[in-house]
Design brief:
416 residues; alpha/beta; Rossmann fold; Serine Threonine Protein Phosphatase 5, Tetratricopeptide repeat; 2 domains; 18 helices; 55% helix; elongated
Length: 416
C-alpha cells in the first residue's frame, strides 16, 4: 500500500493510502500539531493502515484551522480522487473535527464524524470560547472557509455535554442538522476517553458502515467511564478549592490508570500547583516533558512553578522558550517580561511587553507594566548619566589636584 500525494503547497498537503477496497474512503483532517512537518504521521493513520481502509490525510503546516489560500484547491483534489467511492466519510478531532464538519460537502462526503469539534475559533463567531485565542489572533479567517456551514451531509458530533464543546455543537446545529453523541465528564479529552474505553474503533467503524446507534453507544460509554483516566482527570480539575484533597486523590487515581499519558499527569500537576505544592508540580511537569510532550500551557506552568520554588534561572529559560515557540501568545510574553523586570533586564522586558501589547492592545495589565518598565528604564538611564557625570567630575578634580600639586612642587623648588 503506497502513499500518494494528491495535492501539495507550502501550507497544506493531501496524501492518500490506497487499499484494495476503494469503495469506502475516509478523509482524515489532522488535529492540532506541534510539528510543522507536512510529512508527519496523521491522526488515525496507523489504524486505517492496519485495517486496510483507504484513507486520505489532510495536514496543514500551521495550526490555522485550515484557513489557507490553497485549502479550496486541496478540497477539490480530494473530491476528484474520491468521486467513484460508494461511501466517503470525513473524520477529525478538535481542529480536525472543525474541518470534517465544514468541508464535508465540498469533498462530496456521504457522512461526517467530528469529535470535540469547534464551530469556529474566530472570536467574532465563537465569543464563548477563548481556549485558542493565541492562535485566533494571528489567523486570517476566510469567510468562504469559516462562515456559514453549507451542505446537507449527515453529520455526527461527539462531545462532552458539560464542557465548552457543547456550545460549539449547539452552534453547528444552527447551521446544519447533526446527530449528537454525548460523552460526559471528560472535557475536551473525548478522543482519549474513547481510546481508553476501546470504543474509538467501534465509533469509526460503525459510522463508516452506517450502523452507529448513538444512544446505544452512549450507554456503552457510561458503563466503563469510571475506569478511565480521562474521567477522573476531568472530575479532579473541576473540584472546588475547599475540596483540594479530593481533587488530588482523583488526579492520582487518574495517573495510576494511565501513567504515561500527559492528560492525567497535567491534571495532577495543575492541582498541586494550585495547592502551592510547586515542588510536586515541577516533578510532574518534568515527567510530561520527559515523556515527549511539550505545549504552551505546560511551558507556562512549568516556568511559574519554578519561579515559586526559587529556581529563577530555569524559570526564565522556560519563559523564554515559551515566547520563542509561541510568539503570538501575549500572556506568555507578559509573563516573560514580568520575570525580566524582576531580574533587571529592562531592555528585553520592554521588547516582549511591546510585542504583547501590539498583539492585544486591550491587554491593560500588560500596557501598565510596559509603562512601568519604560519609566524604570528612563530612571536607570538618568542614574547612569548622573553616575557618568560624577565619574567625569571626579576625574577632572583629580587632574586639577595633580596640576595643583605639580605647581606647588615647582614653586617650592624655585624658592629653595
Amino acid at each position: 500500500m503506497n502513499m500518494d500525494v494528491l495535492f501539495s503547497s507550502d501550507e497544506i498537503q493531501v496524501r492518500i493510502r490506497k487499499c484494495p477496497d476503494m469503495s469506502r474512503i475516509v478523509v482524515v483532517f489532522d488535529a492540532y500539531s506541534h510539528s510543522s512537518d507536512l510529512n508527519r504521521k496523521a491522526w488515525g493513520e496507523a489504524y486505517f493502515t492496519k485495517h486496510n481502509i483507504t484513507a486520505v490525510y489532510v495536514l496543514g503546516r500551521a495550526n490555522d484551522w485550515y484557513q489557507f489560500e490553497t485549502t479550496a484547491a486541496a478540497l477539490d483534489a480530494i473530491r476528484s480522487a474520491t468521486r467513484d467511492a460508494a461511501r466517503v466519510m470525513t473524520y477529525g478531532t478538535s481542529m480536525g473535527g472543525y474541518a470534517a464538519v465544514r468541508f464535508a460537502s465540498h469533498v462530496g462526503a456521504h457522512i461526517a464524524l467530528a469529535i470535540s469539534p469547534q464551530y469556529s475559533i474566530n472570536p467574532i463567531r465563537a465569543p464563548f470560547d477563548s481556549r485558542w485565542d493565541h492562535d485566533a489572533q494571528r489567523i486570517q479567517f476566510r469567510d468562504e472557509l469559516d462562515g456559514l456551514i453549507l451542505g446537507n451531509t449527515p453529520t455526527i458530533v461527539v462531545y462532552d455535554p458539560y464542557s465548552t464543546d457543547r456550545l460549539h455543537a449547539r452552534r453547528i446545529s444552527e447551521d446544519i442538522s447533526i446527530s449528537h453523541v454525548r460523552i460526559p465528564r471528560v472535557g475536551h479529552s473525548v478522543p482519549l476517553a474513547l481510546m481508553e474505553s476501546n470504543l474509538l474503533q467501534t465509533l469509526v467503524q460503525k459510522t463508516l458502515d452506517g450502523t452507529l446507534n448513538e444512544r446505544e453507544f452512549e450507554r456503552k460509554f457510561r458503563v466503563v467511564r469510571k475506569k478511565l483516566s480521562s474521567y477522573h482527570s476531568e472530575l479532579a480539575t473541576h473540584q472546588p478549592p475547599w475540596r483540594r484533597n479530593t481533587a488530588i486523590r482523583l488526579a492520582q487515581r487518574a495517573v495510576s490508570l494511565n501513567p504515561k499519558h500527559n492528560v492525567p499527569m497535567h491534571a495532577l500537576a495543575q492541582i498541586l500547583a494550585a495547592s502551592e505544592d510547586h515542588q510536586g508540580a515541577v516533578y510532574w511537569y518534568e515527567k510530561i516533558l520527559n515523556a515527549g510532550y511539550e505545549y504552551l500551557e505546560l511551558l507556562m506552568m512549568m516556568s511559574q512553578s519554578l519561579w515559586e520554588i526559587g529556581d529563577r534561572d530555569q524559570s526564565i529559560l522556560y519563559a523564554k522558550r515559551l515566547s520563542v515557540q509561541y510568539p503570538s501568545y501575549e500572556a506568555g510574553l507578559y509573563w516573560y517580561g514580568t520575570l525580566l523586570i524582576r531580574v533587571g533586564q529592562l531592555d528585553c522586558a520592554i521588547q516582549n511587553l511591546q510585542q504583547a501589547v501590539s498583539l492585544n492592545p486591550s491587554f491593560s495589565n500588560c500596557a501598565a507594566l510596559l509603562g512601568t518598565a519604560r519609566n524604570m528604564h528612563s530612571k536607570a538611564g538618568e542614574i547612569s548619566v548622573y553616575n557618568l557625570s560624577l565619574r567625569r567630575a571626579r576625574k577632572q578634580i583629580r587632574k586639577i589636584k595633580t596640576a595643583r600639586d605639580s605647581a606647588v612642587s615647582l614653586v617650592k623648588a624655585l624658592l629653595s
